[in-house]
Specification:
- The chain has one domain: Rossmann fold.
- Helices cover about 40% and strands about 15% of the residues.
- Strands 3-2-1-4-5-6-7-8 form an 8-stranded mixed sheet, with helices on both faces.
- α5 runs parallel beside α6 and α7 packs across α12.
- The longest helix has 23 residues.
- The radius of gyration is 18 Å and the shape is globular.
């Protein structure tokens, strides 16, 4: 199929018929979430989009409604991933409605935030990016069809750090924005590994994806200096590993891997794996190589341990 780093959502979905499919996409008030919803609805999918600010999401998703075809369209539900009360209320509402999903795309997230806590006292990035989705997806499990897929947005930022199961809240570890971001993105990948292991026998598969570097609201907390330092660091690593200089993706290019893993790639190809640039990434332990996935982010034992720790933290077993 020849897809790669510069493939767009429309190119990836060309010829794909999603009429009759229902998709849950978190974070549909800006950026990748809106583009993901637009592309899927344009091919006939009915999208349930989540957002903290429904008024903002309503305005942002006008293009989704305009370009929807067939049975495609979008409805919005309120969800604040930084509050488990909100997560549980959203999940309960969806389960009560009883309408199944073919695809769930855990797209929403925060990046490089100042040190802080969610409503439940979790470190902001780990609590929002991982634990919020952990509870939401597990609670709506009864709605997932036997051939459904879950796609979790991770990031090359997982390379900043492994999860710390002994100190997830930085109570004994110095806090840095990118260490915390790395932990949360590693957690997103490990969640997909363990979720896939638990449910593949029922035909439900999960994958993690790295969308690429895209200029979206995700970087709202990053100063121009922080951005420059990050890109300089990436380029230095790329030179050492013989790779190409960092290049921004467009939003349609950034969302392409999400829709590829959700609706195009064979389930057995992506299930339990980490994907980038519309292909399954190689496991790459060399820190000087930017591409690929670090071994710790797809380690089954690490994934199982994170699951147990996550259940302990949210006070709920799945």
């Amino acid at each position: 199929m020849g897809f790669g780093a510069e493939s767009t959502t429309d190119e990836v979905l060309e010829g794909i018929d999603l009429n009759g499919k229902r998709v849950l996409v978190t974070g549909t008030s800006a950026g990748l979430g809106v583009e993901t919803a637009r592309a899927l609805a344009a091919h006939g999918a009915w999208v349930v989009g989540t957002a903290r600010d429904l008024a903002k999401a309503e305005a942002a998703t006008a293009t989704v409604r305009e370009q929807a075809t067939g049975t495609g369209g979008i409805e919005l539900v309120e969800l604040d991933l930084a509050s488990l009360a909100s997560v549980r209320a959203c999940a309960d509402k969806l389960v009560a409605a009883g309408k199944p999903f073919d695809i769930v795309i855990a797209n929403a997230g925060v990046m490089a935030t100042p040190f802080g806590h969610t409503a439940d006292g979790f470190e902001t990035q780990f609590g929002t990016n991982h634990l919020g989705h952990f509870v939401l997806i597990n609670r709506i499990l009864p709605l997932l069809r036997a051939d459904s897929r879950v796609v979790c947005l991770s990031s090359a930022g997982h390379r900043f750090s492994d999860v710390d199961l002994d100190d997830p809240g930085f109570e004994h570890t110095p806090y840095t924005e990118f260490t915390a971001y790395g932990r949360s993105k590693t957690a997103n990948s490990l969640f997909a590994v363990e979720f896939d292991r638990r449910h593949r026998a029922d035909g439900i598969r999960a994958a993690a994806v790295h969308p690429g570097g895209i200029m979206t609201e995700l970087g709202r907390y990053m100063t121009p200096e922080t951005m420059r330092v990050m890109i300089d660091s990436i380029n230095a690593s790329q030179r050492e590993g013989g790779g190409q200089p960092f290049k921004w993706k467009t939003i349609p290019q950034g969302a392409a891997t999400s829709v590829w893993a959700a609706a195009v790639a064979p389930a057995d190809e992506v299930g339990g794996h980490y994907c980038e640039d519309c292909h399954v990434a190689a496991v790459e332990a060399n820190p000087a190589v930017r591409g690929g996935v670090q071994p710790y982010a797809v380690d089954p034992e690490r994934a199982s341990a994170l699951w147990a720790k996550s259940e302990e933290m949210v006070g709920e077993c799945f």
